[in-house]
Write a structure and sequence with these properties.
133 residues, alpha+beta, two-stranded antiparallel sheet, 3 helices, 35% strand
């Protein structure tokens, strides 16, 4: 399936750019806050999802050309934050699905990653933004 997306991308870029709006593919999108547990990126059979850490920022990248639309990311997401939706195939190779930051828990001192301040899954104290590596 990922090979088909590469062929579609080639056709769009080399033959008929106006066809972009007509091609629809199933692709993961975020519908809730990602907790950056990493399960989806580790289990993606095509390597389309990658979690990248840089300093106190963590991003979840999607390589649109590698995604086969298998829906495994949705099935394994503990928080049901990611779902497959039918969207126009834009032909770009990568996009950022979620961006989060490291948080320190006031209660237990553990470091977590989230898109916004939340409660610690271990002790339920509010996480305090401020980085922490």
């Amino acid at each position: 399936m990922a090979e088909r997306r590469k062929v579609l991308n080639y056709i769009i870029n080399n033959y008929k750019p106006t066809i972009k709006e007509e091609i629809v593919v199933s692709q993961p999108v975020m519908v809730d806050d990602c907790r950056f547990c990493g399960v989806c990126s580790r289990l993606c059979p095509n390597g389309a999802l990658k979690q990248i850490e840089e300093d106190d920022e963590v991003t979840l990248h999607l390589d649109n050309l590698l995604c086969s639309g298998c829906n495994l990311c949705n099935e394994v997401c503990f928080y049901k934050a990611i779902v497959l939706k039918e969207i126009p195939f834009i032909g770009q190779s990568a996009s950022i699905l979620a961006r989060g930051f490291k948080f320190n828990c006031i209660g237990c001192g553990n470091i977590h990653v989230a898109t916004r301040e939340i409660y610690c899954p271990a002790c339920q104290e509010e996480l305090n933004f401020g980085g922490g590596s």
